[in-house]
Write a structure and sequence with these properties.
The protein is of the alpha+beta class. Helices cover 29% and strands 7% of the residues.
Length: 363
């Protein structure tokens, strides 16, 4: 997809600021011409005209012929455009300044499209992967084709002139992103980054073995070979870590009671060290359990609670309970402490009458 890139300070670029000094400029000239040039650049990038704007495009974006001629003249005087040709062949070329505007040209777009088509052609990449495996042909580092960024991202390097020569199996090799970026499109890059011979025993990762199996080629994955590049796998298999004890402080014996590396630790090794004048340490709690049955509960815990706490002898009444209050059902001489009153005892016949009198007296 073609793209257009504008500089961070494109709005205050010196060529844009020069619009304030052109003929017929006013307070609207800078914004009007700057917006016109930006729209022309987007139109050129989208249609791959390589910075060139024709008269028809200028008329479409400006709105009228007079206005188009005026903004084009002001853009040329400020240096944002250059004019070439005459009559119907006349066109305007936008300035190519990375600090102002930079777009992808037609040849770059077509070259990238051919590269993507080659990388998606199984007739090319399957034999190349079988021959080279998962190692860069320039630095022999193991690459990862599932990784998009990083120094070990796997890609393919075209050693031919993709604009004029067709891509073959011999001109396509496996490369890492680092070597591919160093070579770029320089035909003399072999002097800086020479090509290594194909490996006799290629290394295939598990993903590459599955990829080749889908295209009818069966290979066996092997352990990753040692390489000069970084050895960290971007997708490592996590293994549980073995807990380690911190080092002992100076002057203190290490605790070896639970150290699996010293199964021969004895009681003398685990006994705490004492110095003269220190109090004797507390004895360690015993971990031996007694198999004898537990002691029976005390007698007070097994006896049932009294049926009526108001009439129980636990309140310190020696002989009889005192007379109760009228209306409570406890009036009279009381009850002997040895015979507690039952909660479900029958109510005397005159009990309801006494209760009604008690309620009237309280009112």
């Amino acid at each position: 997809m073609p793209w257009l890139r504008g500089g961070d300070n494109a709005a205050t670029h010196p060529l844009v600021m020069a619009l304030a000094t052109v003929r017929g400029s006013d307070e609207r000239t800078t914004d009007e011409v700057f917006g016109f040039v930006m729209r022309c650049a987007m139109q050129s990038a989208g249609h791959l005209t390589d910075y060139r704007v024709d008269l028809g495009t200028a008329l479409l974006l400006a709105g009228s012929k007079n206005r188009a001629e005026r903004v084009l003249r002001q853009a040329v005087e400020a240096g944002l455009m250059t004019v070439s040709g005459r009559g119907r062949a006349r066109c305007w070329q936008i300035v190519d300044d990375p600090e102002f505007l930079h777009m992808q040209r037609r040849d770059e777009v077509e070259r990238n499209r051919k590269r993507r088509a080659d990388k998606g052609n199984p007739n090319l990449i399957v034999p190349v992967r079988v021959r080279d495996g998962d190692q860069c042909r320039y630095c022999s580092v193991v690459v990862y084709f599932g990784q998009r960024v990083g120094p070990r991202a796997g890609t393919y390097d075209h050693r031919n002139d993709i604009d004029t020569e067709p891509t073959t199996i011999d001109t396509l090799v496996v490369a890492c992103s680092t070597c591919n970026g160093r070579r770029l499109n320089d035909r003399a890059a072999d002097q800086r980054v020479p090509l290594q011979p194909a490996p006799l025993h290629p290394y295939y990762s598990a993903k590459t073995a599955v990829f080749l199996a889908k295209h009818g080629v069966l290979v066996e994955s092997s352990p990753e070979p040692a390489s000069s590049g970084p050895t960290r796998d971007p997708d490592p298999v996590r293994t549980p870590r073995t807990p380690t004890r911190p080092p002992a402080r100076p002057g203190r014996r290490p605790d070896t009671a639970h150290d699996p590396a010293r199964p021969e630790a004895t009681a003398s090794d685990t006994a705490p060290s004492t110095r003269p004048g220190d109090p004797a340490p507390d004895p360690a709690p015993s971990t031996t359990w007694d198999s004898s049955p537990p002691d029976p509960p005390p007698t007070w815990a097994s006896s049932p609670p009294p049926s009526d706490l108001q009439n129980s002898a636990a309140f310190g009444r020696n002989e009889v309970c005192g007379p109760g209050r009228d209306g409570t059902g406890r009036a009279g001489a009381g009850v002997q402490p040895s015979v507690p009153a039952a909660r479900d005892a029958p109510t005397p016949p005159d009990e309801p009458a006494r209760r009604r009198r008690a309620r009237r007296s309280r009112k």
